[in-house]
From TrEMBL:
<dbReference type="GO" id="GO:0032259">
    <property type="term" value="P:methylation"/>
</dbReference>
<keyword id="KW-0963">Cytoplasm</keyword>
<dbReference type="GO" id="GO:0004719">
    <property type="term" value="F:protein-L-isoaspartate (D-aspartate) O-methyltransferase activity"/>
</dbReference>
<keyword id="KW-0808">Transferase</keyword>
<dbReference type="Pfam" id="PF01135">
    <property type="entry name" value="PCMT"/>
</dbReference>
<comment type="function">
    <text>Catalyzes the methyl esterification of L-isoaspartyl residues in peptides and proteins that result from spontaneous decomposition of normal L-aspartyl and L-asparaginyl residues. It plays a role in the repair and/or degradation of damaged proteins.</text>
</comment>
<feature type="active site">
    <location>
        <position position="68"/>
    </location>
</feature>
<dbReference type="InterPro" id="IPR029063">
    <property type="entry name" value="SAM-dependent_MTases_sf"/>
</dbReference>
<protein>
    <recommendedName>
        <fullName>Protein-L-isoaspartate O-methyltransferase</fullName>
        <ecNumber>2.1.1.77</ecNumber>
    </recommendedName>
</protein>
<comment type="similarity">
    <text>Belongs to the methyltransferase superfamily. L-isoaspartyl/D-aspartyl protein methyltransferase family.</text>
</comment>
<dbReference type="GO" id="GO:0005737">
    <property type="term" value="C:cytoplasm"/>
</dbReference>
<dbReference type="GO" id="GO:0030091">
    <property type="term" value="P:protein repair"/>
</dbReference>
<keyword id="KW-0489">Methyltransferase</keyword>
<keyword id="KW-0949">S-adenosyl-L-methionine</keyword>
<dbReference type="InterPro" id="IPR000682">
    <property type="entry name" value="PCMT"/>
</dbReference>
Amino acid sequence: MAYKFIDNYREKGARKRLVELLRKKGIEDEHVLNAIGKVPRHYFFDETFWNQAYKDIAFPIGEGQTISQPYTVAYQTELLHIRKGDKVLEIGTGCGYQTCILLELGAEVYTIERQEKLYLRTIQVLPHMGYKTNFFCGDGSKGMVKYAPFDKIIVTAGAPFVPEDMLKQLTIGGILVIPVGDEQSQQMVTILKVGDQDYEKIVLDTFRFVPLVGDKAW
Ligand code: SAM
């Protein structure tokens, strides 16, 4: 894949239109929309496919994985209620687009990807774009106990169930956002940790993610 880091008027315009589309689709958080408006999503595409970068679609990034649909990224991010300085664990870095959105919101991000080829590409691309963060390669289905606790945890692949380890690694008041279901479709689940053993769970809309693969997953 040949990356080119040029953000010209055509891409800037397309990004603005994407933001308006997401607003129409129901994304309300201006901070999230602002972040979508800032991150050059076409930098994650080969130049041949730049005309696809600001469509509201997922797109292949190699290794059988995808860059998430912008609406899905905005939807999950909105549910996290990110505040500046929040310590966030992202499971499923992929190409790093969601990571950039979290960084634009002022989060301190720990992100883990199980596919080494994607990890190696992303640790080069993001710093080149000016985003520096904590990248890890490995199975994130158990969370990352070494760096816990986290204020927020976001899982960007479809899980068969909510892994206990992730709940334990949340701060009190912390939020987990995770798609849960079978391999065909998953429902977005948010879990707020209200006490040491107390959680409030909300089940939301249906999505289709690539599978979360690992010890506490598929
Ligand atoms: N966050 C990405 C974005 O911004 O577009 C989307 C990532 S893609 C939909 C899901 C990613 O999760 C894939 O790159 C996949 O390899 C990764 N993944 C699946 N299971 C994982 C696991 N147990 N630990 C870490 N990453 C995992």
